[in-house]
C-alpha cells in the first residue's frame, strides 16, 4: 500500500515541479527532460544506520534548457530535515553531494536547483549512480536515502 504522502509524490507531474521554480515563469511542457524517482528509506543509508522508521519519495526532473534540477520530496517518520542533496554514488556507496536541494523540514518540499550541464549529463547517463539523501540533526550523515531510477 502506498502511503498518502508518497502517493502524492508519485502522481505529481513534472509541470507542477517546474511551476515552483522561481526562474521559470511558465515552462513549456517540452522544457522538462527526463524524470527520475527515488524511494527513500533508512535501511538504504550508507554508512548507516539511517532512521529505521523513515521513508519517503523523491521525484527529480531534469530541465536541460535552463540547467536546473526540479524536485518534489515527501518524507515521513523522521525528525525535521535539515538538508537534502543529490549525491553521486551507486547503491551501497557513499559519495559527495552534487546538487543541493531544499530540506523537506515540514515533510514536503518542491523547488528547483541549479546544476551544471556536466552534472546533468552524468545523471542522465547513469541515474542509478546517483541518490537522494535527506539529513536531520539525529542522522547528520543521512536519515533516509534512495537511488534514482526511471
UniProtKB/TrEMBL annotation:
Pfam families: CHRD. Residues 32-150 form the CHRD domain. InterPro entries: CHRD. This is CHRD domain-containing protein. Keywords: Signal. SMART domains: CHRD. Residues 1-19 form the signal peptide. It comes from Qipengyuania benthica.
Amino acid at each position: 500500500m502506498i502511503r498518502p504522502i508518497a502517493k502524492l509524490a508519485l502522481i505529481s507531474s513534472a509541470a507542477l515541479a517546474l511551476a515552483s521554480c522561481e526562474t521559470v515563469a511558465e515552462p513549456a511542457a517540452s522544457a522538462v527532460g527526463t524524470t527520475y524517482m527515488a524511494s527513500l528509506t533508512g535501511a538504504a543509508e550508507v554508512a548507516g544506520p539511517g532512521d529505521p522508521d523513515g521513508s519517503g519519495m523523491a521525484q527529480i526532473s531534469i530541465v536541460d534548457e535552463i540547467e536546473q534540477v526540479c524536485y518534489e520530496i515527501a518524507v515521513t517518520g523522521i525528525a525535521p530535515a535539515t538538508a537534502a542533496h543529490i549525491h553521486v554514488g551507486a547503491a551501497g556507496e557513499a559519495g559527495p553531494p552534487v546538487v543541493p536541494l531544499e530540506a523537506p523540514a515540514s515533510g514536503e518540499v518542491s523547488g528547483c536547483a541549479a546544476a551544471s550541464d556536466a552534472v546533468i549529463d552524468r545523471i542522465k547517463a547513469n541515474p542509478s549512480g546517483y541518490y537522494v539523501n535527506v539529513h536531520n540533526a539525529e542522522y547528520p550523515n543521512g536519515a533516509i536515502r534512495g537511488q534514482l531510477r526511471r
